[in-house]
Design goal:
Radius of gyration: 20 Å
Number of strands: 11
Mean pLDDT: 87
Shape: elongated
CATH architecture of the largest domain: 3-Layer(aba) Sandwich
CATH topology of the largest domain: Rossmann fold
Order of helices and strands: EHEHEHEHEHEEEEHHHEE
Length: 228
Amino acid sequence: MYRILICDDEKDIVAALKIYLEAEGYETLCAFDGREALALLREHEVHLVLMDIMMPVMDGISAMVKLRETSNVPVILLTAKSEDTDKVLGLNVGADDYITKPFNPVEMLARVRSQLRRYLQLGGGQARESVLRIGGVELDDRCKQVTADGEPVSLTPREYEILKLLMASPGEVFAPKTIYRRVWNEEPYGAESTVAVHIRHLREKLEIDPAAPRYIKAVWGQGYKFDA
């Protein structure tokens, strides 16, 4: 079953889309601003996003920019007729299509099916591996459990998300600001010190000798990586 995230600050529109999509057999998640949508995308596997442009807290364009840092899931923008400039901007930053409100349910469902078909043909719908194993560290994202050399490790939610980010791309260097944006979902004010504290705690929990880490390594002047 495919899961679709609906994000719009107008609850009537969210409710209507939910009814149409679930009637076609899709599972749905609902959010009412861009920040809520990004939080749900971190927690659930989603196959398509229906995203409004004009929303409080975080608008659809800003959410699109952050989403495209980590995911190629198809996004269909929900726009008003007066938002032509925003449509173009949305497509330029990674949206796949748009639907003008008030929308025709038949057209909406056809566009959803088209984008899902394209996404699946390109391999985007393949199930993601839920267990990451590198050296003696194992992260099971389904159970949200981490072990080091076979022993369970208790992590805070932030520590867990940082570890998952690093382990998902072993050897890749992540700047503190990038880590902060991905994990905190906020603009990175004071990111270096905040991330450094969490990295230190991770090392203390995962490394035999935190002062000479085997896994979580700093690249001077650039950031952190999980050594493959």
